[in-house]
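Example 3.2
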Amino acid sequence: MSGSSPTLFNNHKDRNKFGLIAAIFLILFMTGCYFDEGEEIILPYTVSYSLDIQPIFSTNCTSCHPVLVAAPDLTEGISYEAITNGVYIVPNDLEASLLYQRLQGNPSVMPPSGSLPSEDIELVKSWIEQGAPDN
């Protein structure tokens, strides 16, 4: 081998191994997990008022609504009519939906005991964006 310069690959087999390893690394790198803390949670299903939203109200809101605060009455069986009047919930309009704005802390957070879990707020958000159906 005198007179020949050293190469990175000594033979065709080494070159193929390197190419295969490089391709695998590139695929794994390009499809690796990515998580951004502020990333929006996207729900892949239709949110149900009776199964998803009312339980949030029953757990977190009915101790005050209607006991201490008359409107809106968030009692099961009454709440949908009480909030879909164009003030508390405006279907497909988060900015105009007072209830959603209060969950976000605008102008103050509801419930007063502290913000709901982000998963619950996302359910309410998705439900409003889906047209706030009575389902």
